[in-house]
């Protein structure tokens, strides 16, 4: 029932009633999400039991970190939950981009080809790989960023997705037959593209062809934003390596930092040797903080991801009600936690991000502004009043300041917070659109 608790947050009764009615229509979507959550939680719990997780695994270590049982057991828990041979989970991977670059630089050698089959990678990987839209001398300078893969002699090619977000299978097969790439790379989430995330089942035909034609090619999937959104992961449909960030889905909102990669042991070991020192690999590396938030976060991750998915569906439903562009639709079978929302003007985009910031538990009093964020090709605005800096499993929104004006909203540690955010946005938008509550 609408009351003072909502009015204190400057949420209108109109917005409250609208959200309540939209939720009734979303009941089947929420039930499906909760079913996936339960299945994924069972996998995680089984991994905890198999590896006999105990309190002493949470203890910090110092120095070289030899025989760090907390670190080693956490690797095994991730591997077993994802159903693969091996994993490395490390607080020393500073972001998803760092984890992905660590994987690629560990697998690729001078002269090897990196083939991206889901189009241009996310903005922060562009310089790391050596990709540019520029031409001539400007392109040469952009493509030879210091320590990039290109500078190391790695070749790069990409095949864009079709307009409907599907793979160009015929072109992929032709390229693989001709080039036999060392690494075939897929970005599961949308980045700053207007498309749905790639579902693991949609990857299977591509991976089958890769292994048929070029069995030595290594399939790497950027799994950021995708973990636990489905009842399967890319590893179960033929990927060799998945990689992601712990301040996104698998950290469950509790991991304070870090990243992971998981998959075939031979590939994981090679990457680990590149990540630290050849011959030492994963055998060393201490962490003087407690491992408890990593274990507890991973245990909580299926539930927190489900809360985020329900929030995204509600955002989509609200924008459908307002007849504003949104991707994917509210009833979609999702493969990441991100909801894309489009606006007519730059001001509307910035105002939306301000609404998200205004319901944040941290820094809720500040107003976000666009800025030249490192690694991005346009100014970016980010609304992220999070407990862990930059944690996009917590409720957040970001957008490049360019046309078409699109915000990407994701996360919510609990659905109650997510629905408050939708109410806050609707409070701002309902009056502008002249909408009542006759849904």
Q: Taking strands numbered 1, 2, ... along the chain, how are they ordered across the largest sheet?
A: 1-7-6-5-4-2-3
The main pleated sheet reads as: 7 strands, mixed
Provide a count of the helices.
Answer: 13
Oligomer: single chain
Portion of residues in helices?
40-55%
Q: Radius of gyration, Cα only, in angstroms?
A: 22 Å
Q: Structural class, from helix and strand content?
A: alpha/beta
The tally of beta strands, per DSSP, is: 12
Mean pLDDT across residues: 94
Poorly predicted spans: 134-139
Strand share of the residues? 5-15%
Q: Termini, distance in Å? A: 18 Å
N-to-C series of helices and strands: HHHHEHEHHEHEHEEEHHEEHEEEH
Shape call: globular
Question: How would you characterize this protein structure?
Answer:
The longest helix is centred in the last third of the chain and has 30 residues, at 292-321. The chain has helices at residues 4-7, 13-25, 27-50, 69-82, 96-107, 123-129, 136-142, 169-179, 200-213, 265-275, 292-321, 346-358, 415-433, and strands at residues 86-90, 113-116, 155-158, 183-187, 218-222, 241-245, 259-263, 326-327, 339-343, 380-383, 396-400, 405-410. It is an alpha/beta fold and 439 residues long. Helices cover 41% and strands 13% of the residues. The protein is globular, with a radius of gyration of 22 Å. It has a seven-stranded mixed beta sheet with strand order 1-7-6-5-4-2-3. Helix 2 crosses helix 13 (415-433), helix 3 (27-50) runs antiparallel to helix 11 and helix 8 (169-179) runs parallel beside helix 9 (200-213).
């Amino acid at each position: 029932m609408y009351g003072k608790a909502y009015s204190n947050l400057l949420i209108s009764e109109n917005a409250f009633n609208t959200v309540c009615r939209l939720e009734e229509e979303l009941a089947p979507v929420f039930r499906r999400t909760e079913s996936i959550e339960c299945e994924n939680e069972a996998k995680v719990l089984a991994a905890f039991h198999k590896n006999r997780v105990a309190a002493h695994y949470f203890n910090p270590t110092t120095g070289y970190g030899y025989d760090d049982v907390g670190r080693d057991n956490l690797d095994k828990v991730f591997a077993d939950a994802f159903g693969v041979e091996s994993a490395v989970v490390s607080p020393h991977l500073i972001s998803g981009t760092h984890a992905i670059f660590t994987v690629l630089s560990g697998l690729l050698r001078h002269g090897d080809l990196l083939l991206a089959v889901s189009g241009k990678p996310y903005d922060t990987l562009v310089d790391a790989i050596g990709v540019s839209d520029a031409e001539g001398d400007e392109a040469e300078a952009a493509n030879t960023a210091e320590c990039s893969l290109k500078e190391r002699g790695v070749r790069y090619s990409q095949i864009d997705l079709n307009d409907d977000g599907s793979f160009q299978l015929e072109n992929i097969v032709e390229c693989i037959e001709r080039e036999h790439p060392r690494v075939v790379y897929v970005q599961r989430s949308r980045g700053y593209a207007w498309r749905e995330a790639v579902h693991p089942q949609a990857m299977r035909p591509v991976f089958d062809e890769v292994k048929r034609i070029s069995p030595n090619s290594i399939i790497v999937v950027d799994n950021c934003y995708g973990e636990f959104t489905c009842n399967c992961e890319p590893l179960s449909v033929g990927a060799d390596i998945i990689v992601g960030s712990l301040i996104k889905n698998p950290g469950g909102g509790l991991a304070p930092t870090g990243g992971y990669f998981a998959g075939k042991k031979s590939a994981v070991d090679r990457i680990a040797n590149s990540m630290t020192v050849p011959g030492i690999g994963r055998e060393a590396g201490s962490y003087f903080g407690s491992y408890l938030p990593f274990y507890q976060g991973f245990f909580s991750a299926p539930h927190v991801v489900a809360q985020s998915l329900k929030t995204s569906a509600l955002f989509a439903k609200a924008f459908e009600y307002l007849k504003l562009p949104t991707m994917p639709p509210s009833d979609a079978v999702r493969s990441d936690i991100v909801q894309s929302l489009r606006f007519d003007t730059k001001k509307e985009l910035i105002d939306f991000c301000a609404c998200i910031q205004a319901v944040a538990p941290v820094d809720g009093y500040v107003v976000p502004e666009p800025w030249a964020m490192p690694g991005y090709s346009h100014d970016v605005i980010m609304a992220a009043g999070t407990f862990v800096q930059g944690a996009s499993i917590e409720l957040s929104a970001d957008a490049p300041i360019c046309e078409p004006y699109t915000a990407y909203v994701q996360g919510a540690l609990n659905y109650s917070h997510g629905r408050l955010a939708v109410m806050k946005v609707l409070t701002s938008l309902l009056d502008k659109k002249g909408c009542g509550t006759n849904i």
